């Protein structure tokens, strides 16, 4: 008997150690989600604001850490909890670090800190491209210092009033995502839309909604995959045994997959093509929706959550943008608020008593009790957050100001707020100030030095009596370029200049849809081929191009013909007819 008891104690101790390690690994995975949010928000906005987005996501965590140490953690998880509403600050992490560690508070501090940072960073995307950086830093401190810790304590502190009622939010659909989502909505409304987003008539009514596509769907997709990966820690870190962890991984996989499939089909049918950016949002929407009940849903319940999330994210994003004219560049409100609320309510509807949490959902037991508690909880959390964040943004608007000037917005926040020419410096056109040592270069002026690698003869200068030179400019579709190039070479064209250009003709472009909004794509990608001929007949060039490019459809291209006064070959100094000929 004594041996059995010792064995049991050893197993329990080992189990606790394993759980503690996994708990901290989960916290690290949630921290890594900051990178995912940064990538999604950066990809869905314009390149001129990429550095600003990255900076805001970085400072969300750093500012949040400082204020969470000073006050936030005590308000959320203090042992002295007043009336189930708020903790009494004790600053134990600073004044008695040894006691803080012995009390087992360190893992809880780290885990709740990364959750807090997640709630704060959700707002960045909805307020992107027009918010003052200083104001955003102040907001980030406020939500991490007071707003999130208080309501999260209701949900996760054992003495919290919602915990005692039986409210269930396993990993934060309500406490994190709904809080970030409602704050994003308030911020977007109080900021107003980006310049050029909505075109108004003389009476001030919106007559047209302009799509403003993000600059890198690749970054957005990368961020989505990072977030999905991190979500296994987000939802699974608090799992108490292997069975519950496996169940959580299953539901956390099913819901976003179903949501993404639903959105793909929905946007395909609705717009004629599947919307890539909306499908990325759908994956995140499914993850948000399943978060509250990831331990209480079965596979069917997780599928139902994903099914609703897939429709909900599209409908809310388009409602805000097209009908209500609230500018949310990344869809934060549709993803986090709408699906945070849905996921919280879904616990009361779809919880299976046989799942690890053992909760009685309405559809399985016929009991409305849990649904009522979940509804009360989400209303209380949203009311608390909305009241405090509305007050916060109002004060900031009257003091530091919420929004940058129109000139700063047009130039981009990278340059005006951070002094960055661009987050993509290699792509910035700039005059180089480097000395490459061309002081000794010989300028060719008729007579070419014998030391030149290519022997040349005396070159005649252009006297105006040479044969006529003609420039033929051909605009064509990109897929036809190779055929055109080969055909021109066959008739004797030895040089050409090729450019990627944008343009349109009589068809005025081809309309597409971005996040449900029609994109007036009146500039289409084309290839421009320029050749200058003298020996080769101009008519041969034109007829060859017509023959190769013709399909009979609108957009086959155009051919323009210009007179050219002179041609000069830089290497040899040849002018006129000779400058166009190949070296024999």
Give a verbal description of the structure.
The protein is built from 19 helices and ten strands. With 584 residues, it is α+β, with helices and mostly antiparallel strands. The chain has two domains: 16-418, Ammonium transporter fold, CATH 1.10.3430.10; 469-565, Alpha-Beta Plaits (2-Layer Sandwich). Strands 6-9-5-10 form a four-stranded antiparallel β-sheet, with helices on one face. A two-stranded antiparallel sheet has the order 1-2. The radius of gyration is 32 Å and the shape is elongated. The termini are far apart.
Protein traits:
584 residues, alpha+beta, Ammonium transporter fold, Alpha-Beta Plaits, 2 domains, four-stranded antiparallel beta sheet, two-stranded antiparallel sheet, elongated
What's the SSE blueprint?
Elements: H1 2-43, H2 50-77, E1 81-82, E2 86-87, H3 92-95, H4 97-102, H5 105-126, H6 133-156, H7 161-165, H8 173-191, E3 198-200, E4 206-209, H9 217-236, H10 242-271, H11 276-291, H12 299-323, H13 332-350, H14 362-365, H15 369-398, H16 406-411, H17 413-418, E5 469-476, H18 481-490, E6 497-503, E7 512-514, E8 517-519, E9 524-533, H19 538-549, E10 557-564
Antiparallel strand pairs: 1-2, 3-4, 5-9, 5-10, 6-9, 7-8
Helix pairs in contact: 1-2, 1-5, 1-9, 2-5, 2-6, 5-6, 5-8, 6-15, 8-13, 8-15, 9-10, 9-11, 10-11, 10-12, 11-12, 11-13, 12-13, 13-15, 18-19
Uncertain regions: pLDDT < 50 for 5+ in a row? 429-446
Query: Average pLDDT, to the nearest integer?
Result: 86
Shape verdict: elongated
Number of strands: 10
Strand content: 5-15%
Class from secondary-structure proportions? alpha+beta
């Amino acid at each position: 008997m004594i041996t059995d008891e010792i064995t049991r104690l050893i197993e329990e101790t080992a189990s606790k150690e394993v759980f503690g390690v996994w708990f901290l690994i989960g916290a690290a995975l949630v921290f890594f989600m900051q990178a995912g949010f940064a990538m999604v928000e950066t990809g869905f906005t314009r390149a001129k604001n990429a550095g600003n987005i990255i900076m805001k996501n970085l400072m969300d965590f750093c500012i949040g850490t400082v204020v969470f140490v000073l006050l936030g953690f005590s308000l959320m998880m203090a042992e002295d909890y007043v009336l189930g509403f708020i903790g009494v600050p004790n600053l134990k992490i600073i004044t008695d670090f040894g006691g803080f560690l012995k009390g087992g508070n360190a893992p809880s501090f780290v885990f709740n800190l990364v959750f807090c940072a997640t709630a704060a960073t959700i707002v960045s995307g909805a307020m992107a491209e027009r918010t003052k950086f200083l104001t955003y830093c102040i907001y980030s401190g406020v939500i991490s210092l007071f707003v999130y810790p208080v309501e999260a304590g209701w949900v996760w502190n054992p003495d919290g009033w919602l915990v005692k009622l039986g409210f269930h939010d396993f990993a934060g659909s309500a406490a994190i995502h709904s809080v970030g989502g409602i704050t994003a909505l308030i911020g977007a409304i109080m900021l107003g839309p980006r310049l050029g987003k909505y075109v108004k008539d003389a009476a001030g009514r919106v007559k047209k909604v302009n799509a403003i596509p993000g600059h890198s769907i690749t970054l957005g997709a990368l961020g989505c995959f990072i977030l999905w990966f991190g979500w296994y820690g987000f939802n699974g870190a608090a799992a108490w045994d292997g069975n519950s962890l496996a169940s959580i991984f299953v539901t956390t996989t099913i819901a976003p997959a179903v949501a993404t499939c639903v959105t793909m089909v929905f946007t395909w049918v609705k717009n004629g093509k599947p919307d890539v950016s909306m499908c990325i949002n759908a994956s995140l929407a499914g993850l948000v929706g399943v978060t509250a009940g990831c331990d209480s849903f079965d596979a069917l319940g997780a599928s139902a959550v994903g099914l609703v999330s897939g429709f909900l994210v599209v409908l809310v994003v388009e409602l805000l943008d097209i009908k209500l004219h609230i500018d949310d560049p990344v869809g934060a409100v549709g993803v986090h608020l709408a699906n945070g609320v849905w996921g919280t309510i879904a616990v009361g509807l779809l919880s299976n008593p046989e799942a690890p949490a053992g909760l009685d959902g309405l559809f399985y037991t016929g009991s409305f009790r849990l649904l009522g508690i979940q509804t009360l909880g989400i209303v209380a959390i949203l009311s608390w957050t909305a009241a405090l964040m509305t007050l916060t943004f109002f004060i900031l608007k009257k003091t530091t100001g919420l929004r940058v000037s129109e000139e700063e917005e047009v130039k981009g926040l990278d340059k005006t707020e951070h002094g960055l020419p661009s987050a993509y410096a290699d792509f910035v056109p700039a005059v180089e100030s480097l000395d490459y040592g061309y002081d000794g270069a010989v300028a060719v002026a008729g007579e070419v030095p014998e030391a030149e690698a290519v022997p040349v003869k005396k070159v005649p200068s252009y006297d105006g009596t040479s044969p006529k030179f003609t420039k033929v400019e051909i605009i064509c579709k990109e897929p036809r370029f190779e055929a055109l190039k080969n055909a021109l070479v066959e008739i004797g064209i030895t040089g050409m200049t090729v450019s990627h250009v944008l343009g349109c003709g009589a068809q005025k472009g081809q309309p597409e849809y971005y996040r449900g909004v029609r994109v007036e794509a009146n500039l289409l990608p084309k290839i421009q081929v320029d050749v200058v001929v003298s020996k080769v007949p101009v008519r041969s060039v034109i007829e060859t191009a017509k023959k190769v490019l013709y399909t009979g459809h609108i957009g086959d291209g155009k051919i323009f013909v210009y007179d050219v006064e002179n041609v000069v070959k830089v290497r040899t100094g040849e002018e006129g007819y000779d400058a166009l000929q190949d070296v024999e």
